[in-house]
Amino acid sequence: MFSEMGYRALTVAAGFVVRADHGMLRVSGAERAAWLQGLLTNDVLSLPQHDARYAAYLTPHGRMISDMRLVALADALLLEVPRAVAHSLAGRLDALIFAEDVQVTDQSEMTAIVEVYGPDADAAIRACQQALGSLGAHVARDMSSLLAVRMLYVTAAQLPALRQALRAADLPEVSADTLDVLRIETGIPKFLVDMDQDTIPLEAGIEDRAISFNKGCYVGQEIIVRVTQRGGGRVAKRLVGLLVDGVDVPPAGAPIVTAQREIGRVTSATRSPALARTVALGYVHRDFVQPGTRVQIPGPGERTLDAVVASLPFVSRALA
Length: 320
Prior knowledge:
The protein folds into 2 domains: 4-185, Gyrase A, domain 2; 236-320, Aminomethyltransferase beta-barrel domains (Elongation Factor Tu (Ef-tu), domain 3). A hairpin with a 4-residue loop joins β12 and β13. The chain has a 9-stranded mixed sheet. Strands 11-12-13-10-15-14 form a 6-stranded antiparallel sheet. The chain is an alpha+beta fold. It has 10 helices and 15 strands.
């Protein structure tokens, strides 16, 4: 459930969110980085220890299998992935290990993932540094995120103690629903909500964060290069922002229409506290991505919601 107090904590101070919707894969072995370098879209080899980087794993046809947050530890690489795909992804990656010194384990059930958001996230973590150390928490930062975020990883059994330590540092726990409002305001597509296994990263506009164009080969690279270098970046559809008139929030899957022609679908929508209006994310045909394009979204009953295509993000969030 959305909380105004939680929203304020995440935007003007700091708060933490327990990510039960995220799973964790651990990739260990001496050749782990070189092996993942040839699979994932972003640069694995240059990732500093305790830093995180956004990436994707694609099919040979450039479609998304999953997105992920890649975290470098001294003895392993962590893949923070959507919980719903963690088990299948672990099996898929394990099947690609031949003679390499690499091991992939799904640690979703035994790992608690807590994310600290807000401009005061670093100060809050410093205030409970001793407690984090006693819990053996892995602390990482994601500078590729469009939101100021720090990640804390502990065993599932230590989650109650971690909650207590964060609350003792005056850090409130905030719901995932409240974080989702910030996500939509910031224009961040979510896998299995705004992206799926049919999505090409270029359609979702995540290439600046998720793809290294200098790292060398990875699965699906040929399609990405073909579209960006030979096709001028033209894809059939693109994720755009929509500023919606009125107070109604269109449901996910609602059609986007212009001149009685369906040109796309809504994927996420919310009331934006920052803008005091309804905003949405959705895919539209490439001929209608220009900001200012007027569209309609069929609403409740016989009502139609008027909307206008807008640039993303709706609200810029300062990075830590």
